[in-house]
Amino acid sequence: MTTTLGEFSVLPVSIPPLPSFKHAAVHYLYVRRNAPKVPTALDSRSLFLTNVPVDSTDLHLRGLFASLVGAGRFESVSFADERAAAAAAAAREPSADSLLPASAARLLRMSRKRKHTADEEERIEEELRSRLPDTWTRRVRKSGGTAVVVLADEKSVEQVLKAIAKTHKSKKYPTWGEGVEKKVPGLGSAWIKAHNRMCYPDKDMLQASVDAFSAVFARREAEAQELAKRLRNEPDEDGFVTVTRGGGRTAPASRNEAEEARKKMIQKAEKKKEELQNFYRFQLRERKKEQQQELVKQFEEDRRKIQELKERRGRFRPEA
Predict the structure, then answer these.
(1) What are the angstrom distances between the C-alpha of 221 and each of 96, 214, 216, 218, 288?
(2) Which pTM value belongs to this model?
(3) Residues 191, 195, 201, 206, CA torsion sign
(4) Which pLDDT does position 290 carry in this prediction?
(5) Which one, 62, 105, 296, 316, has least CB within 10 Å?
(6) Residue 232: is it exposed, middle or buried by C-beta count within 10 angstroms (0-12/13-18/19+)?
């Protein structure tokens, strides 16, 4: 069996028998030094893994690396599917600042800076209570997925790669999931039954989640209206106050009006920037012209002085 595949080291892992498949098997993990396209400060002490098992958890990988180089070397792991899900969720949820004009966004940032830590923690807890509970006790990953494991230091990376090479010589492969069976929820039929049960949460829990969501929604609406009022009383850089439909400066602005005002302010800023750039170009052209004129003037002055020196030499008559 090959020990390397390109730049990857092949790590054989023993899969113990399961109730659904009563035969031992060997799974192959492919490990190399982490070298992402965008370098980070953790690359020197991290490893890139591919073909991770579908039932992988941080505890599984922690136990795997502990069996290779001992406890205390493993620091953290990030799975590719979790990073992709987090990025997709962030892309679907627009930020509040992107939906407000520049002045309102600035006021929102200022108000956030003035918040106390306790208030911010309370808001986070309230938003967490507003979410419905997850219906899965454990997530199953895509086949052939990848992960990035961060170790304690660069020396640990070297030790892991050396330990992988030794497993091929000794033929003693680390056992997958050894020691973590009671620490993570099981899979199989019990996993499916737990999912079916959690799809119908307790009525009190569901009511508490709905109440918390309503409170968060009402608070955000009140904050948006307050920001809209402050926006109408807050002049922009040119000294103008935003005027919106409603007949008065205190009428709450709609999201469409806020977005339209934001676009106009961006266009105004881009136009002002272009005018400044053109003005700077004009200044540079004028400065070059002045420098050229100064050089020509200096040249004419030097030529006049040389001509005077020549004339003085012509009039000089030494005594016999």
Answers:
(1) 12, 11, 9, 5, 57
(2) 0.59
(3) positive
(4) 87
(5) 316
(6) buried
